[in-house]
Amino acid sequence: MSTPTVRASPAETPEKADAAAWLAVAAGIIGAFMAALDISITNSALPQIQGEIGASGTEGTWIATSYLVAEIIMIPLSGWFTNMLGLRKFLLIMTTLFVSFSMLCGFSTSLGMMVFARVGQGFTGGAMIPTAMTIVSTRLPPSQQPIGMAFFGLTAVMGPVAGPLVGGWLTENASWHYAFFLNLPVGLGLLTLLALGLPAAKMRKELLFEADWIGIAGLSIFLGCLTVVLEDGQSQEWLESRFIVILMAFTLIGLVMLVLGQIYSKHPVIRLSILFQRSFGSVFVTALVTGAALYGVAYLIPQFLSSITGYNALQSGTVVLLSGVPMLLVMPFIPLLVRILDLRIAIVFGLLCYAASCYIDTSLTGGADGGDFYVSQVLRGFGQAFSLIFLNQAATRSVPRHLVQDAAGLYSAGRNLGGSIGLAIIASLQERQVSLHTQRLFETVTANSVVMQDRIREAGTDPAGAQQVIGSLFQTITRQATVMAFNDMFYFYFISLLVVIPMVLILKPIPKGSSVAMH
């Protein structure tokens, strides 16, 4: 993946892209959106899917986890495949396979069949995320690249938040199968755009024999096992589970193999050394945190609205999707903002908006509904727009040009890995916080407390009535403890986003008026 990509000199680059170039950009954006959408499109339909394929609640989580694991593995490998096969051939193959695996998901009748298809879907879909940025940089002139960058940023925000809404609507109005069948017409259109918009390139077979196979295997084992550990560690009780311990061991083995590839291979699969460069290292850490917030908050809000307010999947998805509206409003101004704003100021502004939106959600009550999230969701949308779009820019500006493919792969993988870390933290802390708040609330309501005595007095002398009062009080305390735990999670993200802001000051500024450089 470290092989330099041949780029046209400024004199050879046209000032305006032709129709074929814009077709290629459209293909890249649609592909990236499909891949991001399918991460969460099954969340709303999981109960129905589990019922039809005979999977338990615990087994059903693999329907989502298997996709994410495979996608994270593929993202940093996509640069190497692009160099070997050529961008056009690589994406045509990946899109065809993505559609095929999507159809297999829709026809699945067992858990094994579904997980196999989701792994294939995630692996092929993961190729579409970093390559979308490659298309923007190679097919658009510098003056028009901010437009492509804005559309790519839209996929990063809208994909995860639109997934539950699209999946919920299709499940309620048709069937969960159509959440996968939807990719067939979109994929056929995507294949047409790729064929028309991307030029053919000669396959470089020699890269197959010069490949860093130890590093490729190590990267796959490391990222795959680490993601599963993060996703399932809490449910398996971490070190109490032999399965998790074995996966941790393989994670370490994969990391060692990846490092050996860095040392001994002439062409490492990906240059990990750029993580230790001050500027890109700060980008990567910021990407981890913003990824955790992006996926974590997109998970928390539907969970709150479902468990506390009683919203269905479609209603919850509508509230989550609201954060995408500011992105649509900001997009027309992105080319201007890139030219006049210091990217550090833009990212700090985005992170502050993001943090403020999380702080607003730390005061939720048991009577909260979707309307209580409107202000925070709009503010969150502006935060996502500025932080993610300008972080894309910072990732490619923080390394030399011949390392931008490595930087793009690590950045995209870091953002998705951050999502896994964020969800793992939620799974671990939420259960603990609910238990903690429940215990503290019960300590204030003893048998001799005024509240308890008043409730029992209202029930009279009927034992059944007294039992009913106690049961009602227990439900009220549990509900309130759950709300308090949600508030704690939003507060956690508020602090995390504030803490990472100093990392932004390390980034290299882009001179005002300069053209946008992307990989």
Write a brief caption for the model.
Helices cover about 75% and strands about 0% of the residues. Among the domains are: about 1-5 and about 15-210, MFS general substrate transporter like domains (Growth Hormone, Chain: A); about 210-265; about 435-480, no CATH class.
Question: What does this entry look like structurally?
Answer:
- The chain has 519 residues and is mostly helical.
- Among the domains are: 1-7 and 15-208, MFS general substrate transporter like domains (Growth Hormone, Chain: A), CATH 1.20.1250.20; 212-266; 434-482, no CATH class.
- The protein has 21 helices and no strands.
- The protein has helices spanning 19-40, 46-53, 57-85, 87-106, 111-126, 128-139, 145-173, 178-181, 183-197, 206-210, 213-232, 242-264, 278-309, 313-321, 325-330, 334-340, 343-360, 374-397, 404-444, 450-459, 463-504.
Biggest sheet descriptor: none
CATH topology of one domain: Growth Hormone, Chain: A
The named CATH superfamily of one domain = MFS general substrate transporter like domains
Structural class: mainly alpha
Ranges where pLDDT stays below 50 over 5 or more residues in a row are: 1-13, 512-519
Helix percentage: over 70%
CATH arch. level architecture of one domain: Up-down Bundle
Total strand segments = 0
- What's the CATH C level of one domain? Mainly Alpha
What is the overall number of helices? 21
Task: Note the gap between the termini.
Answer: 13 Å
> Any idea what the shape is?
globular
- Cα radius of gyration in angstroms: 24 Å
Overall average pLDDT: 82
What string gives the helices and strands in order? HHHHHHHHHHHHHHHHHHHHH
Strand content: under 5%
